[in-house]
Design goal:
The chain is α/β, with parallel strands linked by helices. The chain has 12 helices and 17 strands.
Length: 380
Amino acid sequence: MKIAVLKETRAGERRVAATPDSVKKFLALGATVAVERGAGEGASLADSAYEAVGAQVADRASALSGAAIVLKVARPSMEETASLPEGAVLVAMLNPHAEPALLVSYNSRKLTSFALELVPRITRAQVMDVLSSQSNLAGYRAVIEAAHLYGKAFPMMMTAAGTVPPAKVMVMGAGVAGLQAIATAKRLGAVVSATDVRLAAKEQVESLGGKFVMVDDEEAKQAETSGGYAKEMSEAYKAKQAELIAQTIKTQDMVITTALIPGRKAPVLVTEAMVASMKPGSVIVDMAAEAGGNCTLTKAGEMVMVNGVTIYGPVNLPSHIAADSSALFARNVLAFVTPLIDKETKTLKIDLADEILKASCLTREGATIHPQFLPKENAA
C-alpha cells in the first residue's frame, strides 16, 4: 500500500504532513511512502532526510501514481483534487465550511476524505487532535508577534536609571491557543489578564497566573458545548461582557484575541470604540483574522495603525514556526492513519462505525456522508 505526501501549494503554507520520523513508522506498518520533491523544504526537512529513512522522493505525478492514501496539511485546490488517484483516501485539514464546493470535486474522484479538524475531542483521539497541536503553537507565536510590534519591554526591569514597569497583556479566549498565549506572556514577564465565555476557563487562567475577567451569571454556566467548544452567547450577555471588556481593555498594552466558533464568522470582541480608548503604542494581535476577525478593524494578513494602535491580523500562525508545527502535525496524522492500515494484510481497513472516523469522514464512494455537509435536498 502506497502513501503519498504532497507539497503544500497554498500561499504561505510551509508545513508538511509527514516528517522523516513519521515516514519511518509508516514504513514499519508495511506501507511504501512517496514524498513529493521539496515537500519538507519549508519546515527545514531536506529530500535527502526522507530518502535516508526509505521514502521515495519524486515529482508530484509519480508520488501520486497508485497511492491509496494522500496526506496534506491544507485542503487541496480544485486543480489538485483533479489529479488525485480515483478512490484514494485523502487526509488533511479540509475546512469544509470555508469551501463546501470542494466536496463535489472529492466525490467526482470518489475520494474517501477525512477532515482532521473534525476529529472529536475524546480521550482516545487526543493524539490525533490537530486543532490543539497547531493552536498551541499559534498561541505562543501570537505573543512573540505582539512582543515584536510592541515598542517596550515585557518584564519589569529595575535599573540604576529607574524602573521599567511590566507590560499588561489581555488574552481574549482561553482555549488551547489562549492558554498558551497566557503562559507565554507570563514567561516573558507581563501582567496578564484573560477572558472567556466559559466559566470553566477561570481555574485554568488563574493556574497560569492570569487574572480572569468575565461576567459571571447563569448563562455563563452553560457556555460550553459537550465537545468542549464555546457556544455563541445571547445579545444581552454579549452587551454585558463588552462593557466589562471595554473598561479593562483601555488599560492594556497588548491584546491577543483567539475566539472562534467552528463553521461561523468569528465573534466581534473588540469594537472600534474600544480601540479608540487604548493608549498609543498598544498592540492588538487578532488570531481570528482568517474567520473575519475578533476586532472590527482587523484586516486578514495585514497590519493596520489606528490612532497609534497597531492591529495585526496574522494568517496561518503555525506556519510561521513550520518545523515544530510540522513535527506535531505529522504525529497527529500518524496516529489517525495507523488504525486505517490492517496489520495482517497491510491493506486499508476503514470502519466508519468507529466514532472518530464517523465524525471526520466527509465523502465516501462518490457521496457526501457527513450530516453537516449533506446537500440540502438530502439533509434530514
